[in-house]
Amino acid sequence: MKALNSVEQLMNRWPLLGRTLVLMFALVAYAAGLLAVDVATGDARMPVVLLAVFFLPAVLRAWLLVYWQVRDDLRGRFGSSHHSGV
Fold first, then answer.
1. Are the C-beta atoms of 23 and 66 separated by less than 8 Å?
2. Distance, CA of 6 to CA of 81 (rounded, Å)
3. 3-class SS at 44?
4. Euclidean distance between CA atoms 17 and 11, whole angstroms
5. Distance from C-alpha of 78 to C-alpha of 3, rounded to nearest angstrom
6. For 11-61, how does the pLDDT look when each residue is reduced to its tens digit (9 = 90+)?
7. Which of 32, 50, 52, 62 could pair with 23 as two cysteines, CB 3.0-4.6 Å apart?
8. What is the C-alpha to C-alpha distance for residues 46 and 51, in angstroms, rounded to an integer?
9. Torsion sign across C-alpha atoms 59, 65, 68, 70
10. Residue 86's pLDDT band (boundaries 50, 70, 90)?
11. Taking a C-beta distance cutoff of 8 angstroms, is the pair 49, 6 a contact?
12. How many structural domains comprise the chain?
């Protein structure tokens, strides 16, 4: 329990680190899943393509969370010089 509290404090202190770890985990899980399906199905490529397309939004979401965190940190640090017009 004490280890979980220290990890939670670390993630609260550096949220970009937490999001980056989630991105790395998503990429590794995505690649491992594709390799596992490729090994299990042999020469059939359709299951690999279906798995890749099905889980791609999860990887893209993890990437966008990191991107938005970096963008917000930079805007907070240097000020927002560009306005989206919205």
1. yes
2. 37
3. coil
4. 7
5. 35
6. 778 878 888 888 888 899 999 999 999 899 988 889 889 988 998 998 899
7. 62
8. 9
9. negative
10. very low
11. no
12. 1
- 86 in any annotated domain: no
Q: Does 83 reside within a domain?
A: no
| Extended strands (E) in 1-86 | none
Residue written as tokens 């990437």? 63
Residue 17 φ then ψ, to 5°: -60, -45
Distances (CA, A) of 80 to 16, 46, 57, 77: 19, 46, 29, 9
Residue 41 lies in a domain: yes
pTM of this prediction exceeds 0.70: no
CA distance 86 to 79: 17
Which residues span the domain enclosing 62? 2-76
